[in-house]
């Protein structure tokens, strides 16, 4: 059965067949979370209905796992988490996959950034983040995405295996960070992951690779998943299925590649599609 979802512009697009969906996958910031970084009560109600129907929910984010579970505590035991842009998969507080980043690579990146003091780096590990930043404004921003973090003077103070280096610029990640680190794209994943963020991780670490591991584990086909995203770090997982949904607030490249565009994250774009899913 085909349904229609309203675009932000007021036009309509025909949606894919939702009758065989077994897994729903959603990015968090700019997608599942609204502008206040909150999950809606409506989503939690819809998740319970999905759970009763045997539809597994997966949150896939550039956030660290502790920051994700804080947002989804009420349903954390009933879902899967893809954290750190695919470098980490967690279920029931158990790490089931981690794609580590060598410490010498981390040091190389940080050395490169010494000539770019306006870029704030974060070394991300499974349950802890580290930053050399002394900027109080950045630390306040950091706390939203990395609830477990500490300041360091050098990488010798890092006590856990790195998974990713996240970089922040207060004006634009795409225009002020990416040009400084794009040369790493032959050896690393270099992802523009938000308006102000660029992430560097292992070449085999992205949301698509991590999602495929979950599909193999649960024996689910790519045609049986529904995927939501809004930014360039969502590309790999959106490409995996014909059932791809871009948010009304998404990056233009994401809107162009997705099967449909729903409403914005502040206008219940994810929930609107899930309501239609649950009618089947």
What does this entry look like structurally?
The protein has 280 residues and is α/β, with parallel strands linked by helices. The chain folds into two domains: 4-98 and 206-277, Rossmann fold, CATH 3.40.50; 103-202, 2-Layer Sandwich (Hypothetical Protein, Haloacid Dehalogenase-like Hydrolase, Chain: A, domain 2), CATH 3.30.1240. It is 28% helix and 25% strand. The protein has ten helices and 16 strands. It has helices at residues 41-52, 65-71, 103-113, 136-145, 173-176, 178-181, 207-218, 235-238, 252-257, 269-277, and strands spanning 4-6, 12-14, 23-26, 56-60, 79-83, 88-91, 94-98, 120-125, 129-131, 149-151, 162-168, 188-192, 197-202, 225-229, 244-246, 260-261. The strands form three sheets. An eight-stranded mixed sheet has the order 7-6-5-4-3-14-15-16, sandwiched between helices. The protein is globular, with a radius of gyration of 18 Å. The protein starts with a strand and ends with a helix. 45% of the residues are buried.
